[in-house]
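To: structure subgroup
Subject: Chain for Friday's discussion

All,

I'm putting the inputs and outputs inline so they're searchable in the archive.
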Amino acid sequence: MGEWFAGRNSETANAYGFFMPRGPEVSWASLVWRPEIMLKHRFILWLLAHGKLQTTNRMAYVENKTCMLCQCQDESNGHLFFECSITCTLWNKVRRWLEINHEVNSIEELFHILGHYYKGVSQRMKVRYLEISSMIYVLWEAHNRCLYEGIVPDIDRILRKVQINVYHLWIYVEIEVIHLAKAWAVQIIRMVQIVLKLISSANEFHRRINFIGERRRLYN
């Protein structure tokens, strides 16, 4: 602390690094924090990646630790999202819709599949990430409604909600891309106009220089 105040590392970036040290890098960071994924979906996906979602096995005040969806096994992050019979049925529907041929049995396996087989920024890849993140969020939402409101989840209804979310998010992404393209086009047009003005000014300057030179030759 004294060394930093002494001025050896007095830059702002070093100060931030001193007070907020970086944790170890993880391979899934770029998969979770993709810009097309909705922020609240990223947050839930990030918590799931750390195994920190508050399932009943992490709630000391809840006596019944059975899965709120299937009512068959003890609930945990891994069971709720990858082992529960309702979740597995939903995963199979989503995999068929997105044409994903690999089975998903854990969050680590999901990140491995996405990172190795579904790279890129094409529209198809973006839709896959939107669908998966939306499914995890909607599934967590259905879990909480079942826990706190007693609403029994319906697989088809969950899938429809996921699809509607994806369609809405994709339309929003497309609109943002259009707005960004328009903004870039306006900037390019302005730059072209500036360049044309500079070229016109340069030509006028050269014309005047030549005119002055010709007048000097005539007088001489």
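Points worth raising on Friday:
The CA atoms of residues 98 and 118 lie 11 Å apart.
The chain has nine helices and no strands.

D.
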